[in-house]
Every structure is written in C-alpha cells, then in structure tokens.
Amino acid sequence: NYMAPIDVVANSTYRLRIINAGELVGVNFAIAGHKLTVVEAEGSLVEPFEVDNLDIMPAQRYSVLITANQDPGSYHITTSVMYRNVGPHLIGNSYLNYIGSDAGPPKYGVGLPAHPVWNDPESGPGLDAKLKSADLSTNSDADILKENPNRELIIVGTQARNPDRNNLLRWALNNMTQEFPAEPVIVTAYDAVNAESALDWPETVIPGTITVPDKPPTTWNYTEKIQEYVGDKLEMGGPTIIKLTKGDVVDLVLQNALALNGVAEMHSWHLHGHSFYVIGEGYGIFDPETDKKTFNLDNPVRRDTIALWPKRWAVLRFKADNPGVWAFHCTQNSHGVMGMGLNFVVSPDMLSLPPAGVRSCTATALNDLFQEPALGTTSLLPTASPKSTPAPSAAPTSTPALTNTTFAPSATPSAGHSLLSYMHYAMYVSASILAVFVVHFSI
Questions:
Q1: How far is CA 22 from the centre of its chain?
Q2: Of 158, 268, 278, 384, which is least surrounded by CB within 10 A?
C-alpha cells in the first residue's frame, strides 16, 4: 500500500522537510530518478550538496530540494531501515506524481530507488562529513568556536546488569543508569537551590539525584567486548545529572561501546533546550592528544540531534545559556527508558517560581510507585527548610522569542522562561513517538 503521493509540476523545484519520528530504527530516504540537495539540518542552513539517498536517524530533521526534471510520470519514494537488521520487508512507500501525467501509482517493486545495506559502515558517517554550516555569522553562539571550553566531558554509553533488580539489563552513561523520579528534577532542583541552608550553585546538593562523572570510571578498548566487571554491575541508578552554570562552554565527547552481546549499536542523541556544534567525529577510541587537532572550528554544522555510529565517537560543543533542567538522551525510546540519558542542570538559581501544576502528579497520585525513591537514593524531596520564596515575576507582555528550537532567555529569569523550561521537561518525560517518518513539502 502507498501513502498519499506528493504532487509536483514538471520543472519546478520543491523543498521537502523530512523527519524520522521513529522509535528505534534509522531510515534511508530516496526518490527514484531524482537527486536530493541537502540544505538544512534541524533549523541550521548547511552548504548545499547532492545525494542519491539520505540517512535520517530518530529525531533528526532535514530539508532537501528536489527538481521535477524527469519525464512526466510517477516515481517511487521509499525508505529502508538502517542500523537494525529487521529484514527487507519493513519499508515505507509513497510516490512522486507529476501533475497531468495520469500515470497513476508506479508498479510495485519495479523501478525502486537504491538504498544502502542496513549496516553500511560508511553511509551515515559519509553524510555527516558533508554537513557544514552555510553561514556562522547568523548564529548568536558562534563565538564559542573561538573559545577554549571550560568543561570537558567524556560520556561512554554501555550496557550493564542491575544486581539489585534480578540482573535487569540497563543502559548506562559512565556506569550510571537513569531512572525517572516521581517529582520532576527541575522542581527538586528549584527547591534545593532555594532552601534556607543551600550552598551557592553549583555546590548545591540536589536530593535524590546522582551526578554522572565527567570521565568514565573504567576505561578499556571500546571497540571490543565490554569487560565483565564493568558489565556485571552498575555504580548507581537514579535521576542522573550534570551540573552546569550559565555561560559554561562545554565540549562533550560521546564514545560508542559494544553492548553486552558484543554488538555495536547506533544511538541517536538529542539535547533539549540547546543546539550544539559537531566539531569532531571519528572511528575507534577518542584520543584527546591527537583527535583535538582534527576538530572543525571553522564551519561545523549546528544541530540538536546526532547519530553516534557503531564503534565511533563524536565531539559536541555547546554553550549552557539556557537555565533549567535539560534532558540529553538516546532518542530510541527503549534505550531511554533503560537508562540511557541524563539531565543537564543549568543554573536553577536563575529560575522563577514553578507553576503550581508541576507538583500535581506527586500531590494527587494514587499509585504508591510515585512515592518510591529511585534506586540508590533515600529521598526525592529536599529536607532543608525553604528560603523565603521570591514573588513570581510578572507574566511576559509578549511571546518569548524562539531561535531554531532553543529558547533564549534574558539574563534575568522571567515567568515565561520558567514555564517553558518546566513544560519542556514534562514533554520529554511523557512523549511517545509512533510515526516512522514524516514529509512536508513546499515550493
């Protein structure tokens, strides 16, 4: 069966906005007989380049241009599955229909566009290597490419078993696995930083959370099977955080590692509340002595979702300029709920009073599970007596500005700023993605 066709006028050029809204698999998108010119990735214009087909991992978004320059008729539009061996039967079908040709749907299975094999090691990395920003001068944060980062993180994603829960299989970051608390971390952080006895940020203790270390506690050859003593247990589980202060410039190294079964998986990583520059990618194990020399600080692509390819690493640079609690997680939902994620807690002392509704789940829950502390913690709520609560800021008189997908708050927190931060966190923990891919087009 075909999805609705895309109708085009001969010799016209169209912009297709393509989203992989899949839960687990990457897709490769192609149109028979037509080249795709990539012009945008997640709100950032890139130097245009042509491809025959396009790899799109979960949560990634691209714009491509196509020109209806073939003989009038109908042409297959198909997607194939990438980086997960599910067989050739799982494929998306639509078609490009030239208006006035009366060709009707193309014959199924005839004239299909070519797709790479599901585990092609060069397909995704080859695409990433071509992505360059078209004009950095339009980016308000481009100056961070000329700065030295004041925070360097190396995050290794691994599988491990939880001995406290019948050896339940989990994903972990630097051997810490994320578990979702009853109370949103952003609320706990706000209460903690405003408690009477609270230390100044970032020394504030956020009760019930665990801090992911800046470097992995154990290192090995990540392209080989994980060592047993790393995979047999977790250091800790709970609401995982990394503390940042507004203005921090962060270099984040993502290092892929084999799962316990010896398979290297693709992971699609999404950062909420910020965009980042992809300044480096490579095969094998990241070596700071040599690989930093290869960083692209001239025209790297700026985006918010990156595919971490099997047995490879990537380096992201971003500026923590948006106070709040911002999820950074694998967009494959099964990996996320198994613990593959963390929260960047950025200057919660700059947040205004949270809306009353954010406490409704814990205040009105009938399920005792909402009251159960996360693994390795004793409490989800701060115990210190609160400081005098600041009065809520006046509601903004105009809609807060959005640039790409990142909210840009003023230096002084506002009610609108806090509300968007709290809403964004709620959407993250409650969202469920059902579609495989979405295409929108315009002339």
A1: 13
A2: 384
- Whether 60 contacts 73, CB under 8 Å: no
332 in Cβ contact with 422 (< 8 Å):
no
Tokens found for residue 114: 């070519």
Q: How many residues does the chain have?
A: 443
CA distances in angstroms from 202 to 189, 211, 311, 435, listed in the order given: 11, 12, 34, 40
Structure tokens that stand for 34 in this block: 């037509």
- Cβ distance 417 to 352 under 8 Å? yes
What tens digit of pLDDT does each residue of 274-308 get?
999 999 999 999 999 999 999 999 999 999 999 99
**389 Cβ neighbours under 8 A, 6+ residues apart:** 194, 353
**Using CA of residue 174, residue 179, residue 183, residue 186, what is the dihedral sign?**
positive
Contact in structure between 269 and 281 (CB atoms under 8 Å): no
Cβ(395)–Cβ(417) under 8 Å? no
Reported as a single tens digit per residue, the pLDDT across 125-163 is 999 999 999 999 999 999 999 999 999 999 999 998 887
Q: Which residue in 271, 243, 376, 395 sits closest to 329, CA to CA?
A: 271
DSSP-assigned letter for residue 104? -
Return the CA Rg of the chain: 23
Closest-CA residue to 308 (of 124, 114, 432): 124
- Cα dist. 330→5, 156, 274 in Å? 32, 12, 15
Task: Give 358-367's long-range contacts (Cβ < 8 A, gap of 24+).
Answer: 358/184, 358/186, 358/187, 358/422, 358/426, 359/183, 359/187, 361/182, 361/183, 362/182, 362/183, 365/182
Local structure of 209: helix, strand or coil: coil
**Residues ≥6 apart with Cβ < 8 Å to 405:** 42, 43, 275, 304
Give one DSSP letter per residue of 370-422, joined into a string. Answer: GGSPPTT-S-SS--SPBPPPPPPPPPPSSPPPEETTEE---SS--HHHHHHHH
List Cβ neighbours of 338 (8 Å cut-off, separation of 6 or more): 169, 170, 171, 177
CB 286 within 8 A of CB 187: no
216 by Cβ neighbours in 10 Å (0-12 / 13-18 / 19+) ranks as buried
Distance, in Å, from the CA atom of 439 to the CA atom of 56, rounded to the nearest integer, reads 12
